[in-house]
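Suppose you are handed only two things: the residues of a chain and a line of SMILES describing NAP. What would the bound structure be? This form records exactly that question and the answer produced for it, so the two can be stored side by side and reused later without any lookup.

QUESTION INPUTS
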Amino acid sequence: MTTDELPLRGRRFVVTGGARGIGAAVVRLALAQGADVAFGYHRSADQADALCDELHAAYPDRRCTALHGRVSDSTGAEKFAAAALDCLSGGLDVLVNNAGVNQDVVFARMRREQWDEVVDTNLGSMFNVTRPLVMPLTKGGKGTIINIASASGLHGAPGQTAYSASKSGIIGFTKALAKEVAGRAVTVNAVAPGFIHTDMTDMIPPPQACHLKTLIPTGEFGSADDVAALVCFLASDRARYITGQVIEISGGLVI
Ligand SMILES: NC(=O)c1ccc[n+]([C@@H]2O[C@H](COP(=O)([O-])OP(=O)(O)OC[C@H]3O[C@@H](n4cnc5c(N)ncnc54)[C@H](OP(=O)(O)O)[C@@H]3O)[C@@H](O)[C@H]2O)c1
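ANSWER OUTPUT
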């Protein structure tokens, strides 16, 4: 590959929830484009190890480390952040806050613990992980934070009150932090996927998935690689003048 094809050469990434789904696609593409990556997992230890093995074999000159990190828990997240910095020689250039969960249930039947799990994981992790990493990010001269929100956070989705609220919170967080850190050459953006093929959407019963595809102008769910391409673009120098934005990637779900 030429230098032009390695737009992330030498860039140090921290990715939460990197063992599977969208997070794993980001880890793979970032390594392929020249980055070093420390990524977190919670339950998927075997998948995390397998991903590291695959990427060490493909890119022996680049660092790829899997670290346990339960980002909904402040102590677990702090340990993860410290260990990630350690692996990346004390600094980072890109933070991808990707870890997330959903608990789809109509609001009238939602239990408090379901609400708490979704909000603590999706929104609480923004504090738990970003807080210890934001100052190290400002030290390299330029840095990027990319938060994985959702089209549900922009438009709301029935059966997803907690999820939509947590993802809307990520959007507010993104815009406020972008204003705070712009003067330190750190950009902060959110990516808002629509329906993307991962374990999260595999839970949708096939008849409902068929119906949902009729609502998407392109007629299909997106792939984790589609989202990873956008994330890696936002992490590259080509996106240096983009900050505080929410970029929807949904096949035109809402136009
Ligand atoms: N798929 C979609 O259609 C879609 C649409 C919009 C937004 N998103 C967002 O995209 C992100 C990735 O989702 P996905 O589709 O790739 O889903 P997924 O395949 O279900 O993956 C979820 C990821 O989050 C991690 N995670 C969950 N709870 C965690 C915790 N407490 N601590 C640390 N990690 C945790 C999981 O790690 P372990 O497996 O190690 O536990 C896993 O890597 C999420 O923020 C999701 O809300 C997805």
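WHAT STANDS OUT: The mean pLDDT is 97. The pocket of NAP is lined by residues 16-17, 19-23, 40-44, 69-72, 98-101, 121, 148, 150, 193, 195-196, 198-201 (CB under 6 Å).
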